[in-house]
Amino acid sequence: MAISFPDGFRWGTATAAHQVEGNNVNNDWWAWEHADAGVCVEPSGDACDQYHRYPDDLRLLAALGFDNYRFSVEWSRIEPEEGEFSRAELDHYRRICAECLANGVEPVVTLHHFTTPRWAAADGGWHDERIVDRFARFCERTVDHLGDLVGRACTINEPNVVAFLGYQMAVFPPGLIDADLWRAAYGNMIAAHRRSYDVLKAGRGEFPVGLTLSMTDYQAVPADDPKAVEARDLVRHFAEDIFLEACRGDDFIGVQTYSRSRYGPDGQLPSEPGVEVLPMGYEYWPQALEATIRRAWEVTDQVPVLVTENGIGTDDDAQRQAYVRAALEGVRRCLDDGVDVLGYTYWSLLDNFEWAFGYGPRFGVVDVDRATQERRPKPSAYWLGAIARANGLAD
Ligand code: BGC
Q1: Which among 152, 229, 318, 363 is least buried, having the fewest CB atoms inside 10 angstroms?
Q2: 394 lies in a domain?
Q3: Within-domain flag for 395
Q4: pTM for this structure?
Q5: Which CATH number is 291's domain given?
Q6: What are the pocket residues of ligand 1 if the criterion is a CB atom closer than 6 Å to any ligand atom?
């Protein structure tokens, strides 16, 4: 079936500073990667050296056919010690925005993508309430320096993941399992989103601002079992709803979806027999994007949805194309039902540092030679770039 998308629908790819820049030595993740008895399989090191290679990456992205690039600025570079702002690093990110625009690519700038400066982490990071003012001040300085070149801003990437993996699972820094600190952390992240939204809107430039949320297709099994529904709803309330509710009235909500999670009357269920489990440990379930777009639209009271991440970590590039095609069919059904979906962003442009998993999972449409940093677009890069150009898919 051929599918087309509305005029103005946006097509992009995404990365995050720590996953691609290399040598982000001044944040909590670098420390976490090097901790004794840590959970990370390897350190990020040079990553994709995008700190130096961004002009080539932007040329490649534009040549492939994408019209926007979602990337993040690294707080620990811009503010290496509390209150000390680096003009040189702000200039660096200004150059990236300018280079995007020179290539006809809209810069979609994320202010916080998982990494926190060491000095702020030493004070407790997200569970210490001072972070709300500190993050707002960092946003103010950053927007003051490059806001006129920003196309769209994302405040905090996946606060639900930072809080859950950092304070319930000990997989992200600060590596704790503590319900009180988890509540403090997500509360501070919601407060920081609201503050930074106002700061970014009031600052230099005119651009839409929103939060990007990790979303999962939470299913009750059987769907009409009240106990299964109750178990599912409780988890989903803290994982997603409290954040979506805090984003009502924003310019857009960034939906980031990879898979589903099933709940029976007694809690979470294992993967369904016959459904492939991907190397990330979750099911191959491209239908999740449609379900989560609909839910974000509903719970936010109809904030426009931008898919800011969707993708698959696989060595099988044909499987990547099948996954994206199925996901896009779901996007089209949402549009048909009147959901305002603004665009689709594939995670990721490059194979990159997948946090505690290291360089194993390969989400990129572009392969990166780990020894030489050579970029080699995969067939999916040309395939998705052609979809972007055509604003649709042929049969
Ligand atoms: C994050 C990315 C990550 C991706 C794939 C999202 O949760 O924002 O940083 O690489 O998922 O796991």
Answers
A1: 318
A2: no
A3: no
A4: 0.98
A5: 3.20.20.80
A6: 16, 19, 157-158, 161, 214, 256, 309, 347, 354, 363
